[in-house]
Amino acid sequence: MEEEENVRELFGFYLLHERGLADASVSGATHDIDRLANWLRPKRECLLKVTQQMLWEYLEMLTAAYAPASVGRKLWSLKTFYAWASREGYCANPFQGTSPANRRPQNPPQFIPTVKDIESLLAQPNTRTVIGVRDRTIMELLYATGLRARELLNVELHHFCLKTRCLQVSGKGNKERITVFGREAQHWVDRYLEVSRPVLTEGRWGRVGSKLFLAPTQSGELTYHALLALVRKHAASAGLALMTPHSLRHAFATHLYQNGANLRVIQMLLGHSQLTTTTVYTQCTTQHLRDLLNKHHPRSKSR
């Protein structure tokens, strides 16, 4: 049991420091391994001696209980763990010589805000206040760039070039990319830097450093939970119950594709390593295109 715990700890270290995965990805993968270990324990099976048959039973249980995208992530965690453990000599790889299903394609997002939804959302903050300007700037930048929530929270002042409207982003696995944004987002970032950030840094400069977005708390740190809360607050005011920061990323990609942007360009802007991940947004627009066809094509209108 002690050896098994040590191996799991070393696996997390490998993912973080050798593979360079983000903290959230490492946490998710190690949690997946812990779940398998907990499932095996009542059966008196060991994580490092699991049989191929037991592994398939576990995967069948996951398939019955979780969505395809979740099963795909958990399968990736298991395959990565056993491939690493086998190389390090801790155990045999139960996946060796088999052809388990590849990671399943992601489901399309359940909720994609329309352009009108986004306009309504962005109009909610009271921009006569310091926090209102900050909130408007955050949501404008999320929609203008398609940043992930963690990417936005890690943006620092030196990552920006407002003159060229470029932003350096550190994405998943510490992969860096350059993205761009439009004039509207530029206007709000300028205003935030002029009006809000000086107030939010008062007495906190030593703690907040060069982070772009701050909170009016003792630490000055804007956390993910605070970011989620502000988006949900303004979304509720706009009558959009399902909104999260990631919804703005979905909207960014979907609206680009609906307006003719090349899929490869969207992939680059989102920071996806594989084009297949980006193609989920083509599924999101199928109904949109069908509605347009039914509305405008003379032979598509229902009788």
TrEMBL record:
Residues 2-86 form the Core-binding (CB) domain. It comes from the Bacteria. Residues 106-294 form the Tyr recombinase domain. InterPro entries: CB, DNA_brk_join_enz, Integrase-like_cat_sf, Integrase_catalytic, Integrase_recombinase_N, Integrase_SAM-like_N, Tyrosine_recombinase_XerCD. The keyword DNA damage does not apply. Keywords: DNA integration, DNA recombination, DNA-binding. This is Tyrosine-type recombinase/integrase. It comes from Hydrogenophaga atypica.
